[in-house]
Amino acid sequence: MNKTEVLSSSEFSLHHHPPPPLQRSVGIIGAPFSKGQSKDGVECAPSKLRAAGLLDRLRQQGCAVKDYGNLTFENVALDEPVNGSKSVRTVGSANQRLSEAVKAVKRDGHTAVILGGDHSLAIGSIHGHTAAVGPVSVVWVDAHADINTPLTSNTGNIHGQPMSYLLYELQSKLPPLPNFSWMKPCVSSRDLVYIGLRDVDPAECYIMKLLAVKVFSMTQVDQLGMARVMEETCDYLWDRTKKPIHLSYDIDAIDPSITPATGTPAVGGLTYREGVYITEYLYQTGLLSAVDMVEVNPLRGRTEDDVRSTVSTAVDLLLGCFGRRREGNHLPDYSLPEP
Ligand SMILES: [Mn+2]
């Protein structure tokens, strides 16, 4: 049998044929939430992403789009730090709300898009996603691992902790947290892949080794190239069974020369092209089931251009998740005008 014959049809089509028609029904949730960190502005991102034409552009490339609007979050009074972690009750109640919203979007049959907001929102987003569809694979694209426990965090910002709340394997390391009793861990460390890491705390490094988490840091991106990183990501995730994919995309994964308007920029990041390639590749799998786009902070840019470049890159990444191809797209019913 030659090489071509042993490839499955889906693997073959990935490289040699135009993609099959994929589900491109998108449900958008705005989550203007910023209490997982301390900088103002990240709550403005959903309206900026909409104002940049995200919904129209998704429709123009053939997607059916339903906008579920922006969630509103309550500010819990007297939300004193717990074990050093800040705004725990506010973050807990916001994520409970988001979890319910994501669950509803998934039950309506859409691919869910969550416009953050800071990365603490991944707790509710991934929780709601799994509540609706069962186990998922998580592809976490970020400069940071966001896997501190409340007891290892140096800053007390929960946007650096969401993965520890979600993993089954870390439950015994978490103290009880007010307003988090609604959530149960829902992700296995074997179903998690990190891409783009370059600013990892010692405790996070230890946790990832302890749990043997699959990591493609910037070193591996440099060594292998993004094409190989994505192949290996999917080979790894599909080793047991193909599950729906949750892409949690922190805009700070991209190099701050391209996306400076974010709260915790880290030099040496992904190029625009590497960042977009991730989305194009995951679209082609047909398994993309929910996408977080987080940490765009329009108040952190030094100039208008900083903000524009960050927002438009975030929009391009989302378009890539839903079939935008750099070789161009046309609607299936397009026909050439006759003279
Ligand atoms: Mn993050």
UniProtKB/TrEMBL annotation:
Binding residues annotated for Mn(2+), in chain numbering: H119, D142, H144, D146, D250, D252
Co-factor requirement: Mn(2+)
Keyword entries, A-Z: Arginine metabolism, Hydrolase, Manganese, Metal-binding, Urea cycle
Gene3D superfamilies reported for this sequence: Ureohydrolase domain
Biased amino acid composition, Polar residues: 1-12
Catalytic activity annotation: L-arginine + H2O = urea + L-ornithine
SUPFAM superfamilies found in the cross-reference section: Arginase/deacetylase
InterPro entries xref list: Arginase (IPR014033), Ureohydrolase (IPR006035), Ureohydrolase_dom_sf (IPR023696), Ureohydrolase_Mn_BS (IPR020855)
Annotated spans, Disordered: 1-25
Gene Ontology cellular component terms for the protein in this record: cytosol; nucleus
Protein name as catalogued: Arginase
Source organism of the structure: Poecilia latipinna (sailfin molly)
Organism taxonomic ancestry: Eukaryota, Metazoa, Chordata, Craniata, Vertebrata
